[in-house]
Write a structure and sequence with these properties.
heterodimer; A: Actin, Chain A, domain 4; Substrate Binding Domain Of DNAk, Chain A, domain 1; Substrate Binding Domain Of Dnak, Chain:A, Domain 2; 17 helices; B: mainly alpha; Helix Hairpins; 62% helix
Chain lengths: 652, 213
Amino acid sequence: MALFEILEPGETRTKEACATIPVGIDLGTTNSLVAVVRPDSETGAGKPRALAVDEGSTLLPSVVSYAGTGRPVVGRAARRIAADAPRDTIVSVKRFMGKTSADPETRRLSPYRFAEGESGTVRFEVRGRAVTPVEVSAEILRALKQRAEDQLRLEVHQAVITVPAYFDDAQRQATKEAGRLAGLEVLRLLNEPTAAALAYGLDKRSQGTFAVYDLGGGTFDISVLKLVEGVFEVKAVGGDSALGGDDFDRAVAELLLSEMGRPRDARLVRQAIDAAKAAKESLTRMDRVEVEIEGWKRMLTRDEMERVIRPLVERTGPPGRRALKDAGVPEGKGLDGVILVGGSTRVPAVRAYVRELFGMEPLADIDPDEVVALGAAVQADLLTAEKPQHDVLLLDVAPLSLGLETMGGLVEKLIHRNTTIPTNATQEFTTFADGQTGMDIHVLQGERELVQDNRSLARFRLSGIPPLPAGLARVAVTFQVDADGILSVTAREQLTGVSQSITVKPSAGLTDEEIERMLLASIEHAEEDVQARLLIDARVEAQRILKAAEQQIENNGDLLAPEEKQSIEKAMQALREAAAGQDHRAVQDAIQRLDHDSAEFAKRVMDRGIERALKGHTVGEFDQGELSEHAKKAYSALGEDTRGMASPKGGR
Amino acid sequence: MPESPTVCWSCGAARAPSDALCPACGKVQPPPPPAGVLDKFAVLGLPRAYEVDERGLDEAFRALSRKLHPDRFARATPRERRFSLEQTTILNDAYRTLRDPVKRAEHLLALRGVKVAGEERGGSAAMPQEFLEQALEDREKLLEAKMEGGPEAVASLAEGVRSKRQEAMDEIASALREQRPTPAQLQRTAQLLARLRYYARYLDEVEGRAAEI
């Protein structure tokens, strides 16, 4: 066979000759990228490279539109549809990964219509069907896979996908599931800052301790790593999973809107945010820029913008300082460099703050938009190649502590944050009642003392404990965290050896049946199933709206004249009656009516809210989850656009 | 087929139960069966001693990680992947223990069969009454200083506890340097280690406040 393999001079037979190639994927809030490592045809050295996958750009906007009748549309094409079909076009889906519909984050950003899932998972209602964040993310991954295949003329089956270091177990599981759904074998979930450090470390062949400051559209991550002889050891991670460039845009938009003083509606708010974003981008290069919204004009200086966003930028300080302390380089003493990642680090005020925080000039010579995907590609090559292009090893940590509920609603930590993974820990528990034969195991993630303040990952019951006097039976609970940062838990009764074990399927994850159903893509339900589901969904929606209306009347009832209040309450009563019936259309109609009758009230509530917000709070902070439809629409505009900053072409 | 702790599962060569890799063929081996306290010094190939050369420790950890980490077995058989996960878990734990002087001292005592009173079960019952009273008093003073005294008062209290901690550490180190420490010495060391937990918690409280600012 070898005789027939004729190679070009200088070309060696490598993985290239196979028809498949592993890729690195940065599945971002704002943009997603795919990168590969291919040997340079001249030097033979492997360099990671991001692929141009969307209209010539390496950035694929993380936007999926279900507005059309065919397959979902992804990227810039989807973004163009977004304005006309805001509900059927999902933007910033990453913010919903691993979240339940009850999560504050879900409520904060509610441009969409939600349906209740079997396992409490968030579901967007798009064109008469429900899709989960996992499915939406899978569409993005599928698009990246397809476009990479077309461009490289190679098949793509395996990928390293990056996640924010601060992603919890539920969010990691959801990301992995999305990969699976897109037909990818997920070789590894890699923390984004670690990926960035990998790209930098290889580029510069440096040694020492580095901090990675990653401020994207929606999340802030900080990691401190030590690089010695090709081993990248993560020392500490921290961050804020709800802080990013989008918040800057909202803050500037609030300034603009309050000065305009016009009545706000969804469209105007949306325009203000777009204008704020554009201004922010211009002000990275210029000192002043003219902002125009529907004929209203204003000069905005960089100083003014910086004053507005300063408090937000400063919120990166405490997690940053904590990570430095945890890593043994307090206040940056002993730190060799700071790496900037994420589009929001282009903002000069952010760079200035980084300089202040770490006491040194940050590094930004690899495109902050691409650096994460490049690192992921390197890791994909490391994990699959017989002879990887680089001889390096990544040692990552558990980003958040893992523990168990103990008596009195307290958390006992088994694995502390920043522990190098893989790792395990065992704790023994004993029965507290005579003859007790079962024990509930409640697994939690987070740093707080009380159960209620942490993320609940799973609950399960160990049964079959032999009936013994209290305190005699001993149950050992073992946590094992693998190299992806995913947890499995085993509980074992020591006397009899009865044991139960689970890979933590977080409450926000999908049940196996749900995954199966999606994998089979069996969207066709029997007609009565559909009717039943529509009714359930309508009832859930009705309940949510009723609760919101009640709350608003209680909190802001003073904004209503008595007859206005009466008309709203009448509509509420009608909705209650409809929801008790069997006809989902009647429920929907009643919802519409209430929506219509409370529109003016919602507007007043929103105006009051924004007034308050401008007195020192952000729009996202106050109670928008419980507003009526009308107000939600307006807020949805505030939350919807999270594209972050565009990358200057060829910028490096 | 159960793996033998003394024979390589792959090539059948003889090996020691603590060998993570087969000395003959280099394949990753299952970890030793759980029996008593695992010697974490042996995991890193270091002598069992309180004094540890930090550089040597770091280097040993990196060298072993390169050989054992699951990333190195992404293409291997499920069995090897499992062994790699188990071995790396043990390695990470051993490194974490030996890097920290307090955990290292506790481990040395554990290897000699002496348990340090933990916080969980009846830990405080094992502490002398006067120490507990002192600890309580210290914490009250700290609370007072936080409420009224301001940062200087808090700092000076912390300084006092830090020097107590240092004294305890010094005494622990010298006891553990002994070739043949007496049972009384070991008990005394265990007690000092238990005290360190109180000091650590105290200082956390002080620093916790600093970190919030």
